[in-house]
Automatic annotation (TrEMBL):
One of its GO terms (molecular function) is 4 iron, 4 sulfur cluster binding. This is CO dehydrogenase/acetyl-CoA synthase delta subunit, TIM barrel. Keywords: 4Fe-4S, Iron, Iron-sulfur, Metal-binding. Coiled coil: none annotated. Gene3D superfamilies: 3.40.50.11600, Dihydropteroate synthase-like (3.20.20.20). Residues 1-59 form the 4Fe-4S domain. It comes from Thermodesulfatator indicus (strain DSM 15286 / JCM 11887 / CIR29812). It holds the Pfam family FeS. The keyword Manganese does not apply.
Amino acid sequence: MGLTGIQILGMLPKKNCKECGFPTCLAFAMKVAAGQADIAACPYVSEEAKEKISEASAPPIRTIKLGSGDHTLAVGGETVLFRHEKRFEHPTAIGLLLRTDMAEDEISERLAKFKKLRWERVGVKLEPEVIAIEDVGGDAQKMADLVKKVREEVPEAVLVLMSEKKDVLAAGAQECGEHKALLYGVTLENLKDMAELAKETGFPLGVKADSLGEAARISEELIKAGIKDIVLDTGPRGLRELYEDQVIMRRAAIKKRFKPFGFPSITFPFRFTENLVTEYMIASVLVAKYAGMIVLSDFRADLLYPLMVERMNIFTDPQRPLVVEEGIYPLNGPDENSPVCITCNFALTYFIVSGEIEGSRVPTWLLIKDTEGLSVLTAWAAGKFGADTIAEFVKKCGIADKVKHRKLIIPGYLAGIKGELEEELPDWEIVIGPREASGLPPFLKEWKAA
Ligand code: SF4
C-alpha cells in the first residue's frame, strides 16, 4: 500500500531547504504521497529511503515506456478500477499487425493505412501508435528487413516484435536501435533466453501465456530474473476468458497489489474471430476493460474511427473537462463588417460551432468565453455565462476594435438574458442566434451588419 505523507516525512532529512521546489519537507512529503511529486527531487534523501518510497508510491500497474524521443508511448500506470474514482492514465495503445510472410504490396498498403488513418476531434489527435510484426517461419533476416522498412517509412510507430525465438527478436531489436520495441513471445520454455535478451537490449518483454495462471508464473519468474518492464498476454482461450482475465488482472493488481499482474496487458482480438467487424467490437470492450495494448488484424476507417473516439472518451480525465482558450477566434477571414458570435469554452461546443461556421464559409468572429469547460446552459445555470460575465468579457476582449457594427449573436438557448445583456452592454444590439449549431450556416448567410 502507498505511504502517507507523514510516513514519507519521517524518511526525509527535514532541512526545509526548499531545494525540491516546495516550501517545507512536509509540503513535499504530502505531494509525494499524492503522486504529484517525485521523491528524486530531494537531493538529501538516502538511497534506501528513496527506493522504499518509490516502490510504495509507484502505481500498482507499472508504466511501460516504448519507442523513443517524441515518439515515446506509455502504457499501464493505472491506479484505479473505475474512471470516476480518479482517471485512467494511459490510453490503450492501438496497433496494426504485419507478418514477415506478407507480400510487399500488402505491407506497403498497410503502412499507407497506418499513416493515413488519423483524425482530430475536439482538438485531440486520434492516431494509432503501434505496428506489431509477427515472425512467420523463424527467419531472423526477414524480421530485421521488415523492422528496417517500418522504421524508415513510419518512424513514429512503436513496434511490437512477435516471436518465440530469441535470435529473431534480437535481429529485429538490433534494427530498432534506441527506439524501444516490445519483445513479445516469452513462454515458460524460452524464459531464460528472453530475460537475457531484455537485459542486453533494455527492451520490455511481452509474456505469451496460455492461461491466467501461466501468465502469473512467467511474470513471477521474470521479476525474479530482475526484469522490470513486462506486458502480459493471458492467451487465446476464449472471448469470455479474455474479458475475465483483463478484469481479474486489474483487480488483483490494484486491490491486492499482486505483483505478477502489476503490468499492462496486450491483446489480439483477431484470435477470437475471423470477422473484422466482430474483431473491432471485441476491441471496443477491451478499450473499456482494461487492455493496455490492442493489436488489430487490419485497419478500416469506418471501424477504426469509432474505436478511437471511444478510447478518447474513456481516457479523458472526468475531473477536467476539455476546454479551449478564452479569446477571439477569426473564422473564414472576418473583417470589420463580419458577424460576431459568442459561446462557451467547452471544447465539444467550440468544435461543433466553429465547424458549422467554417462550413458556412461566412467570415465570422467567434468569441469564446471561459466557462470552465461547462456547456452553454450548464454554464449559465452555474453563473459562469450570465449577462454580467458575458458583458465583462465582451468589453475586455477587444472585439469592439475589430468590428464597426455593434451586434452580438448569442446562443438561442440564452434568449432569456437578452434584455439583461442589453442593459449591461448598452452600445450593443443583442441578436438571438439559433439554438443548435446546425442552424448557424443559414442564419449567418442571412446576417447583415447594418
Ligand atoms: S529538498 Fe529535501 S530537505 Fe530540502 S525541503 Fe525538500 S524535502 Fe526537505
